[in-house]
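Lecture 7, part B: from sequences to assemblies.

Below are the input chains for today's worked example.
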Amino acid sequence: MMKMNRKHARRACQLLVALSFIAIPWINGFDIRIVTGNLLSLEIFGIPFADPLAALQVWVSTWHMSSTLALGAILSLTLAAIMGPVFCAWICPYGLIADLIQKLPFVKTRNRLSKGGVFKAVVVGIVVVGLGVMEFPPVLNQLSLPGWYTRTMQTLWLSGTIPVGLWLLPVASVLDMAGGGHIWCRYCCPQSLLLQAAGMMLPNRFRVNYDTSRCTCSDKSPSPCMKSCPYGLDPRERNIHPECTNCGDCVVQCSHFGKALSQGFAARK
Amino acid sequence: MSTVKLLPPGAGDKKRFLQNCIHCGKCVEACRFDALKITEGLDPLTAGTPYIDPEKAPCFLCMHCGPACPTGAISATEQKDADMGAAFLDKNLCYTYQGAIICRTCFEKCPMRNTAIILENGYLPVITDQCVGCGVCFYVCPRQAITLIPRERIHEKVRSEA
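Predicted structure of the full complex, as structure tokens:
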């Protein structure tokens, strides 16, 4: 029997979220409101969660934020501060699509856009401040693929139509197929930035740890763990990259070798 | 005539509303009458925000969308503060004013009956300045005698009549 590992757990979690959001607007139609909203702002058993970037855009544009929105953003950021940007690997429906695209034989597993993440952070920062000063609505939400996925399901159940924005999903998929290595998630998606920033706040958080003494592939490059990383990061780097989503694929891969990689609460080395 | 689109009750100023709406769709899920729809298309300023097309389904002022909104884009208000627009009755078209029949459809269906629409002499409908523009009378009128002006266009209407 195949042993259940962390990778299977992650796939199950991603699938559960993706399938849940197909059903949630329909279930809401029967007035059973356990989960309401979409991945831009969600309420589970009355506990609000919100996309921190959406909250930031509202705040910069209006200098005001409702307590529900602030609490929602803080809860999302707290999760990211403790666990890292786990949203990207475990919850985001587009993350699942991008992971599956990467399994196609012709798609590269790594892309090398050095400083691509920094470039994205600078561009998004300028856009948020610039549009905020001009008192624009939160337009960066329109680039949110988890937002579009869940909005499509809402529109489908509530209006019976498919919104044009759904086409952003295949567009990003084609980009991912051509570029490889989760090019959309890493260099286009604006939502991951604040989660990554929150993940750098606490000295001690849930992260991938590397035990040099147990590593049996230190002479290989790229190593099996690097090849298993959906983002093409090197889990053995001394400073684990802020982009690391704690997906755990490298830990599963390493368990077939020296078991040098593990996940747990630890300080950044 | 172009189609009338309304913002949800309690949305207030359109610019302020759009600045605060983060497109989560909770108001649309909360709407008891399927009046709220999600704006489609790719206009980045409005796509994903809720609207009402009173020709298809008007707002019955159940006021469930305000409490569902997490950002305060739609404020949780009472019916009298819904402030969505205003309805105007064309007496030259209205069956009752024309003496054809005593219709009263708009009066009977108005969610704010006796406040927003009153009956003069017991049978002539009059839309008062308490009307919040929910669009129900506009939807039910068998003679299409009612014009609905959304909140952001009311000043044009007032100017044209002055």
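Note for the exam: The beta strands of chain B are 36-38, 50-52, 85-89, 117-120, 124-127, 146-150. Keep this in mind when comparing with the next example.
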